[in-house]
Amino acid sequence: MDESDEALMARIARGDERAFRLLARRHLPAMAGLARRILGNAADGEDVAQEAMLRVWTHAPRWQPLAAFRTWLTRVVVNLCLDRKRRTQWVDLEAAGELVDPAPGATERAEGDERDRMLAAAVETLPARQRSAIVLTYSEGMSNAQVAEVLDTSVSAVETLLVRGKQNLRRALAGVIDEDE
Amino acid sequence: MTRDELQTLLDSHGADPAQWPAALRVAALGLIANDPQARADHEAARELDAALARFAQPDTADETAAARVLTRLAGPLPRQDRAFWRRWPAVLLDWQFAPAWPRLAALACCAVVGFGIGLAGLDRPFDRAGLTASNPDIASIVFEPEAITGARP
Q1: Contacts of residue B56 in chain A, CB cutoff 8 Å?
Q2: B80–A15: do the CB atoms touch at under 8 Å?
Q3: Nearest CA in chain B to A34
Q4: Spans of all domains in chain B
Q5: Category of A143 on φ-ψ map: left (φ > 0), alpha (ψ -120 to 50) or beta
Q6: Which residues, including other chains, have CB under 8 Å from residue A16's CB and lie 6 or more apart?
Q7: pLDDT (tens digit, 9 = 90+) per residue, B60-70?
Q8: Which of A55, A168, B112, B122 is buried deepest, with most CB atoms within 10 A?
Q9: In whole angstroms, what is the distance from residue A76 CA to residue A69 CA?
Q10: Is there a contact between A38 and B55 (Cβ–Cβ < 8 Å)?
């Protein structure tokens, strides 16, 4: 039996719950990780991943395979994250050094590497779209064109987001880099 | 290519020359080969890429979160969002045709209210009002001269 994402979506559109759970098991870890990195919070990331999968179920009968399922799902997750971020207040970039990544496991992993910890904290302070562009590029391994499709923008706009995001990261990490040098 | 242009290229496409646009690759590699500052910028970009890749690598916490979500999704799922023309047969099939006391009670109430209105004569004023409004119209139709000959009935 064909168990590609698109074939499973066709079965889900007919109300096949088993196909839905199979698809969810396949994509949930990556989507939970993506949402956690964009939101900077594991609990919120988990909520977004669950909401995205429920949308897969409810919208399946109307879903058209115009793009790859993974790209569509990534777009759903990113949009849910951006919606959620709009309701929160920005943290000043200068405070990046005092922030701690609250994701479980991330802190422990970064304990031995001060720069990685600072980087995680600095990424958390970036504006949501800059952070989304960086996370999609490095977490999902997407090209600039794919990131543009997910963020529903142009390739040049994605390049601008990446340039500004990395400029902000360098500024936030400047102290650490000076110490290393 | 200037150093600023190289920095923009490094930020927008990463430090790996294989990811750079072909039209810029030769110029960028030439600048890196000949300019120590450009070489340092390239090395810094490579370090930032590596740090971001470590930041973005999969975490066991995500597997745990996914397992929790899967557990929550094991319960009843919400109704799917179908177009109405595909949904209405299912709505009919789901309809409860078996009699149930609330429906019978509602029907009995309607019947009692209808009898009550009929017995009390609450419906008559409306009928009379309708007759008085329509009488002149009927008269004008009956006694009007015939349109072509002008003959009266």
Answers
A1: 37, 135, 138-139
A2: yes
A3: B56
A4: 3-55, 98-153
A5: beta
A6: none
A7: 888 999 999 99
A8: A168
A9: 11
A10: no
